[in-house]
Sequence to fold (368 residues):
Amino acid sequence: MSTSTRFNPASVDFRSDTATTPTQSMLESVLQASIGDDVNNEDDDINELQDYVAQLTGKEAGLYVVSGTMSNQLAIRTHLLTPPSSLICDYRAHIVVDESAGIAQLSNAMPYGIVPSNGKYLTLEDICARVVPDFGNIHFAPTKLISLENTLHGEVYPFEELQRISKFFRGKGFKLHCDGARLWNAHVATGIPLSQYGELFDTISLCLSKSLGAPVGSVLVGDKEFITKALHFRKQIGGGIRQGGMLARMAMIAIKENLPKLAKVNQVTKEVAKRLEANGLVIRESVDTNFIFIDYTKTPIENETLDLIAKREKINVWPQRIAFHYQNIEDQEVLDKLVKVFTEAFELTRDTPELMQKHKDIVFTMEY
Ligand SMILES: *Cc1c(COP(=O)(O)O)cnc(C)c1O
Fold:
């Protein structure tokens, strides 16, 4: 079986960093995978993966789950055992925006999504202003959990601010969770070991299927007691997998082979961002890692126009956000096309009154 000469659709796909395909080494590893039953805790490869990620992050235990959503939701459910309770996070956080109201349904909790006063990340002061201490006032839902996303929209959370927040809140009746779907990218961008991030949080969720390119899964890490309880809730929502060793094998290869490639991903993203800026496009979030967010209020790009031009150039894009991963950064011709597609769509929109109007109608209703 040879996959190396086959066209890889991931090489022209800039919609998401999930748009990777399993490599030959991943697929071949499946034949050596353990075949135990993970629901009975009997699969060697899953156990090894869980232990490995726990060890990387300096935690006692890890739990392999099928998605980042499940990982976050299990973490929240396990932290918030007894309602009524509330949690604090950024208003753009995946846990409130992109997880289908899971917090309301699964944890019966009240999330407060806060707008960062600096426009970038929540500071200790932002959080303090919204925290509800559990001092017995029956009107309130006490804050039990603070969840921080790193990276968020590709931006790296300043480590010093995480330290301040952690120092202030931990061990005082508040739990700290990190939605570290892309903590790998932050770690590579800052050079700060994952274990130092681990010291600041009670629990971290790390995606394997985003930047690292594993076909399936996330790992939730925390202390042993916490992970044992999370395992209980994983079973409750039908998240037990039987012979999942194959998935763990591929994920382990994704970590070992692809984590070192993220530095180049981050670097290429910055280069493309510079080229777009040179062509007059305005970029919104600072480009710390693998995303470019285009400021649509300042850079009109009509969606259908973008779509048509992208189809013509045979690349796959979404409006507004450009995502990079280790499989779409190698071919200079493809990167040139990417710049061309966004630049051309921008210029055409800007110079065509009907397209400008169409674009405005959409931007008016668009939050993200
Ligand atoms: C993608 C993502 C998740 C969830 O991952 P899925 O595997 O798609 O459920 C959680 N948090 C963040 C920040 C993400 O980007």
Summary: The radius of gyration is 21 Å. Residues 153 and 169 are 25 Å apart (CA to CA). The chain has a mean pLDDT of 95. The chain is about 45% helix and 10% strand.
